[in-house]
Amino acid sequence: MTKFHYLILSLFIALSTLTVGAQERIKTASFLEQKLASLFPKAVITPIDNLEGYTESYQLILEEPLDHQHPEKGSFQHYMYLSHADFSKPMVIETHGYNTSNIKSEVSTLLQANQVAVEYRFYGKSRPNPIPWEYLTNDQAIADYHNIVTKLKELYTGKWISTGISKGGETALIYKTKFPNDVDVAMPYVAPIINTTEDPRTITHINTVGTAACRQKVTAFQRAILENRTEVMNVFSQYATTHKMQYTEVSMTEALEYAALEFSFSFWQWGGKCDQIPASDASAQELFDYLNKVVGLRTYNDEMYYNFLPSYYQHLKELGYYGFDLTPLSDLLTIVKSSSNDRFAPKETTIKFNPRYIKKVRKYLEKKGDHILYIYGGYDTWYACAPNPKAKVDALKMVLPQGSHSTRVKDFPKKEQTLIQNTLERWLK
After folding, report:
1. What average pLDDT score do residues 357-374 get?
2. Distance between CA 327 and CA 125 in Å, rounded?
3. What pTM was computed for the model?
């Protein structure tokens, strides 16, 4: 046998072995896995550990079109996680606004439902490098979800519920306006629908929420950070060194000013406690530690700057955002002179805000948004941007008066929890 013939024979044997192996895997795959392979023939499907209450779970890596209108323009790898309990039970799709892993939503627990958690395009593992910014639009992301739901409905023929938290909840709302019949119920958590890139309602909220005494303590703390800049910066430098964080995209001095400005927004967003705010004469370590607890100085390091580029792009392009109130700190700021968050947006692309996009979404939600169950915390800064459905709309908006951005159904009193559960059951009959 010549070397050439030997090579051909070896290749034939190897291919035969692979074919037999593939056939054996197909034979041993569950009914669900076989169906998923049929629905998503180009996907990489991998069994993963089950969350509580599920019998089968899979990670799917889809070949998603960059442009659903022009699939010839290419694709990207899109990650989603399916958790199966029973084909007769409802299916929850969680439209994560950023990256995700396989996490069980509260809605899935409430309804004992199947679940598919979908990472937002161009975030986390679903991020191409470099990002083709022209395809990072809400409509393209919604088309991702629509295609996934359309296919999975061949398997899960019962009721469908969409959910998401914060930007993910906002995504669930936008999805509901674009494809109102894809899901029977939408249940977004703490989801803002924002008017402009510097929505003034957030500043109004910060200046009126809680008590006057607490708001004064917030402002005093912000000023104390910058009045003790040198000492606080020394602590910040030690923190960055210990945690091996780099601050080249945003310098540490600039990061400290942004963190001081951000504090009032984050304090109310995350349910800060007034009695925990350090006094103005607290040590630099105490001032830094509390600022870091509420805002998170790691937000500004190079890794997080890179991770959040898609988010700032979307907020400044279509979703809207908030601006900083410079007034309380204007005499102490040496670097930050703009109230905009555009400092954190990608520089390699032009961004122009389209106010019509989100205005159209809000109009639909408030006038036609039936079967939407909104969950909000009354102290959360983003609550200032919540939609207000008209009386004729069959929707339910639940607000926990002093709740934060972490407000969930379990945080409400029993009477309100019962109302939420009964409303879901009525809509899902």
Report:
1. 98
2. 40
3. 0.92
